[in-house]
Write a structure and sequence with these properties.
heterodimer; A: 114 residues; mainly beta; four-stranded antiparallel beta sheet; globular; B: 120 residues; six-stranded mixed beta sheet; 12 strands
C-alpha cells in the first residue's frame, strides 16, 4: 500500500542537540511538506518542497533545516537553534491526482526535549 | 492576519445528534479550496471533505456535509447522526490556488481546530 512513513514515532532530544526526523513516501508525489502542531495552535508550516532539490521556507522555518535529494524522502532536522522544539511534527505529500484531497499525511513524530 | 478561524475550541454532543463545526476563512482570491480533516488521538490526519470555491453545490461525503456560504466566507462541517468514533480534533484548511506553482503542489493553511467529544 502506498503511503507516508514517519520515524521515529517518539523522539527525545537533549538541550543543544540536533535531531533528524525521517519522512518517506511511496506515492510518487512531487510535493512534500512539514508541519508543526502545538496544542491550541493548529498546524503551522515549517518547510515545503515542490520538486526534488528545491524547497521553500514556511511560516516558522527558524531553527529547522530540510533536504530533498530524492523524490521519496524529505527529512527535517531540528537544530539547537530551535528554542522550543517540543511538539508534534507531521509530514505530508501531495500529487496532481489528488488535488481535491489536499494532503496525504504521515502518522507523526512526537519530539520532546529532556 | 489569520486566514482560517475555528471559534469552537471544544464541543460536546450526545451520540446520534447532528453537530456543526464552524469555520470561517479570509482570502482575496477567487479560486481556492476548502478542506476538513479529522485527527483522532492517535495523531494521523484523515481527509473528510473538500469544497472548491466554484462548486455550486455543497459537498457531501457520507455522514459529512459542508455548508458552504461563499458570501459569508464560511465552510461549516456538518456531521449527521454522530457516533462515538467521531470524537476527535477537527481541522478546517484552505488552499489558495495562486500558490500552486506546479501541478500537485498546494499550500494549505489550517485553523486551530475544534475538539469534538461524543457522549454516549
Amino acid at each position: 500500500d502506498g503511503g507516508i512513513t514517519q520515524s521515529p514515532k517518539y523522539l527525545f532530544r537533549k538541550e543543544g542537540q540536533n535531531v533528524t526526523l525521517s519522512c518517506e513516501q511511496n506515492l510518487n508525489h512531487d510535493a512534500m511538506y512539514w508541519y508543526r502542531q502545538d496544542p491550541g495552535q493548529g498546524l503551522r508550516l515549517i518547510y515545503y518542497s515542490q520538486i526534488v532539490n528545491d524547497f521553500q521556507k514556511g511560516d516558522i522555518a527558524e531553527g529547522y533545516s530540510v533536504s530533498r535529494e530524492k523524490k521519496e524522502s524529505f527529512p527535517l532536522t531540528v537544530t539547537s537553534a530551535q528554542k522550543n522544539p517540543t511538539a508534534f511534527y507531521l509530514c505530508a505529500s501531495s500529487g496532481d491526482s489528488q488535488a481535491n484531497y489536499g494532503y496525504t499525511f504521515g502518522s507523526g513524530t512526537r519530539l520532546t526535549v529532556v | 492576519a489569520q486566514k482560517i478561524t475555528q471559534t469552537q475550541p471544544g464541543m460536546f454532543v450526545q451520540e446520534k445528534e447532528a453537530v456543526t463545526l464552524d469555520c470561517t476563512y479570509d482570502t482575496s482570491d477567487q479560486s481556492y479550496g476548502l478542506f476538513w480533516y479529522k485527527q483522532p488521538s492517535s495523531g494521523e490526519m484523515i481527509f473528510l471533505i473538500y469544497q472548491g470555491s466554484y462548486d455550486e453545490q455543497n459537498a457531501t461525503e457520507g455522514r459529512y456535509s459542508l455548508n458552504f456560504q461563499k458570501a459569508r466566507k464560511s465552510a461549516n462541517l456538518v456531521i449527521s447522526a454522530s457516533q462515538l468514533g467521531d470524537s476527535a480534533m477537527y481541522f478546517c484548511a484552505m488552499r489558495e490556488n495562486r500558490y500552486r506553482i506546479i501541478q500537485g503542489a498546494q499550500k494549505l493553511v489550517f485553523g486551530q481546530g475544534t475538539r469534538l467529544t461524543i457522549n454516549p
